[in-house]
Amino acid sequence: MSTNRPITNAADKARVLIESLPWLQTFAGKTVVIKFGGNAMVSDELKELFAQDMVYLSTVGVRPVIVHGGGPQITAMLEKLGIASEFRAGYRYTSPEAMSVVREVLTEHISGELVTLITDHGVVAEGIPGDHGLFTGRRLTSVNGEDVDLGLVGEVIAVNPMQIVAALDAGRIPVISTIAPDVDHPGQSLNVNADSAAAAVAVALHAEKLMVLTDVPGLYANWPDTSTLVSSITASELRQMLPSLSSGMIPKATACVEAVEGGVPKAAMIDGREPHGILLEVFTPEGVGTEVVADGGE
Questions:
Q1: Which range among 85-94, 103-112, 155-164, 199-208 shows the weakest confidence by mean pLDDT?
Q2: Range of the structural domain that residue 52 is part of
Q3: How much is the pLDDT for 5?
Q4: By the 8 A CB rule, do 58 and 171 touch?
């Protein structure tokens, strides 16, 4: 008989499991939408940890839905093919030539890799391209009230969640790539912002929570003062802050506002570089990052 068991370590693990029980009960059977991006998307180690987190959520009864973009990978592939990247008003100008690359990178490379990683950890994942009956899009022709030609860049104007729900009901994890058919130009697909698309998906699914992965610990009230990290904020308070945020945080914060204003109880911006940050956000009272709640919410 061995007498060298790490009793303290085992007790600590048991305490953590017990502390997670109320949150497991809260989220059991509920849908959570995760916008996957940033360093978590390009680091092999973080991708593995992300896949583990998704399988954990599914195994304990949560219904995770992944929405992803792929800016760095698209840029790299365009450079490899000798296609110039041009940005206008913060958006990538997307020519028909570039759009074919966007489609390949999003639906084959990124979705394909995520599906494989998740499935290898024990739960079947299913890639769902946004332009296969999921999204309806329209070209984006103005930014902040200014007319701009962005080419084949659009926004999601409608979501048909039937494919997502079918995958979830079958015990699979949906992995959604953010391209949408152009409602005004049949047969043409659009490159849509993944943060905004994730918010639209969360609203359409009546999700319990939207989580947006970023490359910072959360929202700062007075950046770059790192002591001003905001742990919780209402949607109206965040909407008022939008013009003062950095350009990279505006679409993520806007997505959280849109989700909560659309009926999602809570949204959060969390650091995708934090190992298992998603599990900490879902299953601990403190959470991580910045949580966005409805006005009058907790």
A1: 85-94
A2: 25-293
A3: 47
A4: yes
Q: Is 43 exposed, middle or buried (0-12, 13-18, 19+ CB in 10 A)?
A: middle
Does a structural domain hold residue 7? Answer: no
Q: Up-side HSE of residue 168: CA atoms within 13 Å toward CB?
A: 21
**Would residue 235 count as lying in a domain?**
yes
Determine the Cα–Cα distance for residues 134 and 179; give it in Å rounded to an integer: 9
Of residues 164, 166, 255, the one with CA closest to residue 209: 255
Q: How many domains does the chain have?
A: 1
pTM: 0.91
CATH of the domain at 154: 3.40.1160.10
153 domain residue, yes or no? yes
Q: How far from 88 is each of 81, 92, 95, 141, 282, CA to CA, in Å? A: 21, 6, 13, 11, 36
CB distance 41 to 105 below 8 Å: no
| Per-residue pLDDT, 297 | 61
In a domain, 1, yes or no: no
Backbone torsions φ then ψ of 203, nearest 5 degrees: -65, -45
